[in-house]
Amino acid sequence: MSAQRVCSASGLEMDTPLRVELDGIAIAVVKDSDGEIHAIGDRCTHGDVSLSEGFVEGKTLECWAHGSAFSLETGAALNLPAYEPVPVFVVQIDGDDVLIDPTVTKEV
Fold first, then answer.
1. Shortest CA distance to 75 belongs to which of 99, 101, 108, 27?
2. Contact present, 93 and 73 (Cβ < 8 Å)
3. Contacts of 96 (CB under 8 A, 6+ apart)
4. 8 Å CB contact between 37 and 93
5. What backbone torsions phi and psi does residue 53 show, to the nearest 5 degrees?
6. Rounded to a whole number, what is the distance in angstroms from the first to the last CA of the chain?
7. Residue 6 Rama label (left phi>0; alpha psi -120 to 50; beta)
8. What's residue 83's pLDDT?
9. 27-40 pLDDT tens trace
10. What pTM, to 2 d.p., does this model score?
11. Which strands, in side-by-side order, build the sheet including 97-105?
12. Is 4-105 CATH 1.10.10.10?
């Protein structure tokens, strides 16, 4: 499968997650305060709730339900109650288009 356009880079609000779904896979797309764009699995590994409804701080996305934070760079759960990581997807930028292939995750 190839990367698919999910949004425009200029349309992403800083520190505001955007939920997208590609081929049945929910993904949270985030432009952090440095302007870097990340894509991680949108389901908290602790409570099975949407991470895109959570809070961005630096390079982390915090689950709104129970407070577990996940690294936007590695997907690692940074605090309890979650301990399992979420997948991190490769993001490609083509002009102003943000492209993600839901079958390609980052090696961390």
1. 108
2. no
3. 8, 9, 10
4. yes
5. -95, 5
6. 21
7. alpha
8. 96
9. 999 999 999 999 99
10. 0.95
11. 4-8, 97-105, 89-94
12. no
